[in-house]
Amino acid sequence: MISMQVEKKLHAADGEMTLKLDLQISEGHLVTIYGESGAGKTTTLRILSGLLKPDKGLIEVDGKVWYNSERGICLRPQQRNIGFVFQDYALFPHMSVLQNLQFASKSKADKAAMDRLVELMELGALQHRKPQSLSGGQQQRAALARALVQKPKILLLDEPLSALDYKIRMKLQDHLLEAHQEFGLTTLLISHDISEISKLSDQVVVLKKGEITKQGTAAEVFVDEKISGKFKFTGEVLNIQQQDVVFIVTVRIQNQVVKVIAQQTEIQGIKTGDRVMVASKAFNPVIYKMDP
Amino acid sequence: MNWDPLILTFKLAFVTTVILFVLSIPLANWLAHSRSRIKPLIETLVSMPLVLPPTVLGFYFLVAFSPGNAFGSWLNDWLGLRLVFSFPGLVIASVLYSLPFMVHPIQSGLSGIPASIREASYVMGRSRLDTLLRVLLPNIKPSILTGIVLAFAHTVGEFGVVLMIGGSIPGETRVASIAIYDEVEALNYASANFYSAVLFIITFCVLLLVYLVNGGYLKRFWR
């Protein structure tokens, strides 16, 4: 159980803003933080990990005080035992994958756990290579494995999958879920991808300009109540083609590609690469552009 | 030929470089990561020897260390140290004089490492010292090599400071650059040429080696 009530003044690009967080996260949950860049997502993870000190507030994890501004308590990151996967992975360039894992390990003796992680993340063939010789997805797996070596209770992931292509993303999402369940982690994830969020998370927290605007399950947070459709999917527009008087829109939904017929009025403002929701209303599927 | 001035020069440069290396790593680390208010002041002081005439530095050392002054006589009476016209005095002056040449490369090397690398190590439970020694320094080997070589070469090339505080005592403070000056004054061009040529060749080789190593040319050659 993580309980976090903190405030921190930030100097954002468009002037000062105050990050105000009031979060309760149950043990074993996978929580996604969603929001525009500059909303305070990364800062939230940094505060929880102890890399950044808030101005005031309280952080308690499993009944233990990690931060209390009134009593002057602030545990250093070294004391918090958190697994953190950075956006740039932060693998140590001068060490091989295995050495990176060993550096994170508290006891050298725990070889069985290390081997299990290498196996789980499919790093066997890569373990003696240096990070710069690995692809993005391989680096990501190494970083995830490294974050788990120290057997953390809490895993923080700062947009770990954003730089990867679709196929590898899907695979890594599975790796992530597997690790989350196998190690009984409480995981906080930053992500922009709604289908990814829907697949992975128990709880979604929407941050806007430093404040939590929405909280709940992915379905509760992302589905617009105005649409009374029978089924809804989110996806990405791959192609728009005119055929006589209608348009054929090719949409990628998760790992499927579907074609949807749309009227001129419906596709106005929708272009290739847009994130859209495909919903069925009676018989005709209709397309709505979603908020970015 | 008298090799003493050359040997003394390299002895001085070696001792100075070792002291500077030990001193500069914590200093450069602090300068690279601190957000303290006095940081600009410290940075200025470290960089001063770059622009100040060496004679200025030498002059103030001479005044401060002279046994006729309070500080100099205190050193003399309590520690038995005479820093004017002596080798230890030369070492102290050289350390300050070459400080920026060691600190700056290491500092810029450390600043160039993404903060997430350091933070990843902290989150793993590694202390600051452990992180510095096992993560940060191994990643800036070229910067460390540059710092060591520049500090060494700069100390070899020192003249003004030595002249002011060391004088020209054979075997004690008469380094090669001073010896060249003395020999030229005595119209002894052959000796001056000998010292000059040796310094010229050695500094050329040392700097060439740095560029070869840092440019990765040697690695390519060995492969």
From TrEMBL, chain A:
<keyword id="KW-0472">Membrane</keyword>
<dbReference type="InterPro" id="IPR050093">
    <property type="entry name" value="ABC_SmlMolc_Importer"/>
</dbReference>
<keyword id="KW-0406">Ion transport</keyword>
<dbReference type="GO" id="GO:0005524">
    <property type="term" value="F:ATP binding"/>
</dbReference>
<keyword id="KW-1003">Cell membrane</keyword>
<keyword id="KW-0067">ATP-binding</keyword>
<dbReference type="InterPro" id="IPR027417">
    <property type="entry name" value="P-loop_NTPase"/>
</dbReference>
<keyword id="KW-0813">Transport</keyword>
<dbReference type="GO" id="GO:0016020">
    <property type="term" value="C:membrane"/>
</dbReference>
<dbReference type="Pfam" id="PF00005">
    <property type="entry name" value="ABC_tran"/>
</dbReference>
<keyword id="KW-0547">Nucleotide-binding</keyword>
<dbReference type="GO" id="GO:0015408">
    <property type="term" value="F:ABC-type ferric iron transporter activity"/>
</dbReference>
<dbReference type="InterPro" id="IPR015853">
    <property type="entry name" value="ABC_transpr_FbpC"/>
</dbReference>
<keyword id="KW-0410">Iron transport</keyword>
<dbReference type="InterPro" id="IPR003439">
    <property type="entry name" value="ABC_transporter-like_ATP-bd"/>
</dbReference>
<dbReference type="InterPro" id="IPR017871">
    <property type="entry name" value="ABC_transporter-like_CS"/>
</dbReference>
<dbReference type="GO" id="GO:0016887">
    <property type="term" value="F:ATP hydrolysis activity"/>
</dbReference>
<protein>
    <submittedName>
        <fullName>ATP-binding cassette domain-containing protein</fullName>
    </submittedName>
</protein>
<dbReference type="InterPro" id="IPR003593">
    <property type="entry name" value="AAA+_ATPase"/>
</dbReference>
<feature type="domain" description="ABC transporter">
    <location>
        <begin position="1"/>
        <end position="234"/>
    </location>
</feature>
<keyword id="KW-0408">Iron</keyword>
Automatic annotation (TrEMBL), chain B:
<keyword id="KW-0472">Membrane</keyword>
<comment type="function">
    <text>Part of the binding-protein-dependent transport system for molybdenum; probably responsible for the translocation of the substrate across the membrane.</text>
</comment>
<feature type="transmembrane region" description="Helical">
    <location>
        <begin position="194"/>
        <end position="213"/>
    </location>
</feature>
<keyword id="KW-1003">Cell membrane</keyword>
<comment type="similarity">
    <text>Belongs to the binding-protein-dependent transport system permease family. CysTW subfamily.</text>
</comment>
<feature type="transmembrane region" description="Helical">
    <location>
        <begin position="83"/>
        <end position="103"/>
    </location>
</feature>
<feature type="transmembrane region" description="Helical">
    <location>
        <begin position="44"/>
        <end position="63"/>
    </location>
</feature>
<dbReference type="InterPro" id="IPR011867">
    <property type="entry name" value="ModB_ABC"/>
</dbReference>
<dbReference type="GO" id="GO:0005886">
    <property type="term" value="C:plasma membrane"/>
</dbReference>
<dbReference type="Pfam" id="PF00528">
    <property type="entry name" value="BPD_transp_1"/>
</dbReference>
<keyword id="KW-0813">Transport</keyword>
<keyword id="KW-0812">Transmembrane</keyword>
<dbReference type="GO" id="GO:0015098">
    <property type="term" value="F:molybdate ion transmembrane transporter activity"/>
</dbReference>
<dbReference type="InterPro" id="IPR000515">
    <property type="entry name" value="MetI-like"/>
</dbReference>
<feature type="transmembrane region" description="Helical">
    <location>
        <begin position="12"/>
        <end position="32"/>
    </location>
</feature>
<feature type="domain" description="ABC transmembrane type-1">
    <location>
        <begin position="6"/>
        <end position="210"/>
    </location>
</feature>
<keyword id="KW-1133">Transmembrane helix</keyword>
<keyword id="KW-0500">Molybdenum</keyword>
<dbReference type="InterPro" id="IPR035906">
    <property type="entry name" value="MetI-like_sf"/>
</dbReference>
<protein>
    <recommendedName>
        <fullName>Molybdenum transport system permease</fullName>
    </recommendedName>
</protein>
<feature type="transmembrane region" description="Helical">
    <location>
        <begin position="144"/>
        <end position="165"/>
    </location>
</feature>
